[in-house]
Amino acid sequence: MLFSRIVTRAASTHARILERGLALSSQRGLDGVTLGVLADRVGISKSGLFAHFKSKDDVQIELLDYSSQLSGSHIIEPAMSEPDGLPRLRAVVRNWFGWAPRSGLPGGCPVAAGMFEFDDVESPVRDKIAAIEAEWRLFLCNLVRRAVELGQLRENLEVEQFVWELNGIYLAHHTSQRFLRSPDADQRAAAAFDALVERSLRVGKNRKTKDSIRRRGKSRAG
Amino acid sequence: MLFSRIVTRAASTHARILERGLALSSQRGLDGVTLGVLADRVGISKSGLFAHFKSKDDVQIELLDYSSQLSGSHIIEPAMSEPDGLPRLRAVVRNWFGWAPRSGLPGGCPVAAGMFEFDDVESPVRDKIAAIEAEWRLFLCNLVRRAVELGQLRENLEVEQFVWELNGIYLAHHTSQRFLRSPDADQRAAAAFDALVERSLRVGKNRKTKDSIRRRGKSRAG
Questions:
Q1: What is the mean pLDDT of chain A?
Q2: Which of B29, B67, B129, B192 has its CA 20 to 30 A from that of A209?
């Protein structure tokens, strides 16, 4: 009984560390999660923290995993009920832009910020961010590819380029919403995404003249 | 004589602090420029640093000014010999993407990284980044507006939206080049920028059918 109570308490302390740590990292960046400040926020001693994590890297890596789980439950899960292909892609994008504040975090997306924070640093934390980014990019590519297979997006679409540009819209939305605190961030991002989709639609779905088809093909090649 | 030598030495120490500090901030972010590490890199004592700067904020703000000067000399100056309008815009964009490593910095753009580092922090450093960003955005908007006036880009172009999307391409290029170390970062960014310009060209310059003009207008409104 006593042991199980201790285990439960340890588990809930661990969960509390992750929760407070993620909030902190969303505001101050992963490197802003110093063990001293984190221990303070959780209300335990620094040596108490070391009972849960071996090092600062360890904390940051677990925070990234936790962030990834949280974003998945806010972005991917609710989109899976949408029809396969373009509707699901649209739902994922809608849930992705601004997911961090919508999920209750006080700041921005720790992975997006981490790509600027750890770009010139070699560390296991950098490797973790790279792994999450690669998985996410693959997920987006698969969604776009599915929309191509279903004939919603055009056959000769450069899927990686589409996702590369989509990532740029996400980052612009992030700086616009979080840094500039611009009230039109959502609207600008939606217009940019609509334009990206519009020029990726299957030819003939929205364009009829041979002339525009030819020039469209040319413009993509350039 | 002695005094002037001291003044010269002080000025050159100040310049050295800025130079080393900017290199450090481009690799580790502005908050990575701790006074201890900076003093080490410059080869002076921490109290020696305080002879030049009142506080860490002070250092960061001067570094941002210095970064702004450096980027201006790499991005804007060489573009001014290009013809007004679209050619100059293209030259600025070409010089902007990847300017930091090309100017000799060992890391990325301190302002881009700062927009993620300081998004949820209130400080004079944040205000400085915001001021630089606003000035840069205005400069880009004016370039785009000039291309509209000259009839190169279409009259009903939403200039702010164009620059918003251009900023997204820059950020995607930054993560692609610096974080992912992707060999195709330049090519992806060029393709994205070309697509943005292509759909902003003056109607009739590259599109002839009334049908495509009508649909193009519609797609922009959506």
A1: 89
A2: B192
